[in-house]
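> call design_seq(struct)
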């Protein structure tokens, strides 16, 4: 075999190996449509000890999102709800953590009344045509079992369940609250899930990049 032929074969092998390495280490590419990623952090009295874990998990998840293909909105949850950030994912865990701490620290402990947050989600995203994932970090407690609140919750979940673009994820609820949450969110079927704090980053990425 001629030396030139051997050289061509070796070059081809090197290029082939390089291509395989590049493919194996390249992260999944996002689909063409911008996704809505909504983070809700429960800062009520019952979840106060868990709030640092919520912040760390949110920062980890947000830092992995592609700012070209994901729009982020953040809410805090207690006896009501309030939006405190909207825009592109921040570039680092440190920047995200700083932003979250700024808006969540040093607030008085309050009861958990989730119905009003879910009513806001239904109002804002009930008719969205974009893929949307709502990650709610909560212990799953509900301190408002009034008929009005329960009716509001059922109506909101019904609206969300009717939109196939929406997924709801409850992150880190207490074991004793999980069965009740599955019942409440049953209208979403397989688009509802309960996961641990450690799973939340991968779940968000799977939704956006698949």
């Amino acid at each position: 075999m001629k030396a030139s032929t051997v050289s061509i074969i070796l070059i081809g092998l090197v290029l082939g190996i390089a291509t395989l390495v590049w493919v194996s280490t390249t992260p999944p590419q996002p689909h063409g449509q911008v996704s809505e990623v909504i983070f809700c952090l429960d800062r009520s009295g019952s979840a106060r000890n868990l709030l640092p874990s919520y912040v760390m998990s949110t920062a980890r998840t947000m830092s992995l999102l592609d700012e070209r293909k994901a729009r982020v909105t953040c809410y805090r949850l207690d006896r009501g709800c309030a939006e405190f950030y909207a825009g592109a994912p921040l570039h680092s865990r440190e920047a995200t953590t700083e932003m979250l701490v700024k808006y969540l620290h040093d607030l008085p402990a309050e009861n958990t009344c989730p119905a009003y947050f879910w009513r806001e989600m239904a109002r804002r995203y009930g008719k969205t045509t974009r893929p949307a994932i709502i990650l709610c970090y909560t212990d799953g407690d509900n301190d408002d079992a009034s008929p009005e609140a329960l009716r509001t919750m059922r109506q909101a979940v019904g609206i969300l369940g009717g939109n196939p673009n929406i997924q709801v994820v409850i992150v880190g609820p207490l074991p004793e609250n999980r069965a009740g949450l599955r019942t409440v969110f049953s209208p979403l079927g397989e688009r509802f899930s309960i996961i641990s704090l450690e799973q939340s980053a991968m779940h968000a990425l799977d939704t956006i990049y698949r």
